[in-house]
Amino acid sequence: MGASILILGAGFGGLETATRLREALDESFEITIVDQRDFFNFGFTKFDLMFGRREPEECKERLSALDDKGLRFHQAVIESIDPEARQVETSTGPLTADYLLVALGADIAPEATPGFLEAGGHHFYTFAGAEWLWPLVNDFEGGQILIAIFDKPYKCPPAPYEAAFQLDDFYRDRGIRQDVAIDILIPGPMPLPVSKSVSADIEELLTSRQIALHTNHKVVEVDYRAKQAVVANQTRFPYDLFIGVPIHRPPAVVLECGLGEQGWIRVDPATMRTRYERVWAMGDVVQIPVGNFAGPKAGAFAEDAAATVAGDILRTIRGQGEVSPYQAQGACYFEFGEGKVAEIAANFLGGPTPDLTLNGPSLEYRADKEEFERSRIEKWFGT
To answer: Hey, which residues does 101 pair with through a beta bridge?
Structure first.
């Protein structure tokens, strides 16, 4: 029979989908994964870099290992996508496919907030960004730290709060927490607007660690000369170290092709199909309405979507089979400090309203987080 399956993006969703398809299909089906990087890393390992807990190489899983799993890894920059022809132009030449999956994630646009780059552009949303933060965090001896979420949506919604908890713990261990003020500025009314109860839990935890949360404070400019963050009502917040959550946007190649006519790709959650024949999309690059909100952009939910995508591709190939609709369910782990980890367990589409629960923080969830990482590395890379 045989056919070619092309997966754009080697993140959670792309890797999980490729693994499922490889296990289900014989070698006459060529499965190719394209990514501009030569490694994968878990999002939470960026905090290990930011706080000097791991060396960069300890956080990387080389994508070349996929070749030993019966997959074909192709490192290249994706320059254009023709979804109607299922053809992709890359920096190393064109690729075509019988079945195409777009899992390119979200790009960040630090330049979109005036003054942010001039202020240093410090953030933890890329591997390099987290590395650059470590010496600043390590050398900080006192003063005001501001963490600002510029806008929604952004990847891993709990991450800014996780950063604050870890900064608190880091400086407590150093015995200088009394000399460090940590404030968070967010554009919305609560940490996670999709859940009032979990938001209340997070706010209570922040208060317990003397971390100030300023809701409805959308930062529109960073006055790098005065070292002040400017919010929409022109209130100014001074800082000594400013860490931003950059504005997130769909990748340019998505905006430039028919898939991105509305920005983020729209799909049918029952199958994750786009409006193009034999073209699917998943992960951070898609936008799925959840009531008045949108589905979360986080690796665990992309992994959940992989079951739906792989199932529908297999049904399309075989002409039969059942597909479980995407429910946007999964768990996000975040470090609280003192060796404790918390878990946010969520199911966004499986019921009439989103269901979120905050579990922990506790020492027990650290073992869960470590097993989460270990099991995925073993499954995807066989190490």
So the answer is: 7, 280
The token pair that represents 303 in the structure block: 């992994």
Helices (H), 209-298: 252-255
Other beta carbons within 10 angstroms of residue 54's beta carbon come to 12
The pTM assigned to this predicted structure is 0.95
Closest by alpha carbon to 41, among 11, 17, 71, 73?
11
Give mean pLDDT, residues 315-338. 91
CATH code of the domain made up of 3-106+250-324: 3.50.50.60
Does residue 250 have a cis bond before it (omega within 30 degrees)? no
Structure tokens at 282: 């998943």
For the domain spanning 114-247, the CATH number is 3.50.50.60
Show me where the domains of the chain are located: 3-106+250-324, 114-247
Strands 241-245 and 247-249: unpaired
Residue 186's pLDDT band (cuts 50, 70, 90):
very high
* Cβ atoms of residues 50 and 163 within 8 Å: yes
CATH fold match for the domains 3-106+250-324 and 114-247: yes
Q: Which amino acid is at 342?
A: A
Instruction: Give the mean model confidence (pLDDT) for residues 303-325.
Output: 94
CA distance 72 to 287: 28
Q: Residue 301 burial (CB < 10 Å; 0-12/13-18/19+)?
A: buried
In what side-by-side order are the strands of the sheet with 93-96? 78-82, 87-90, 93-96
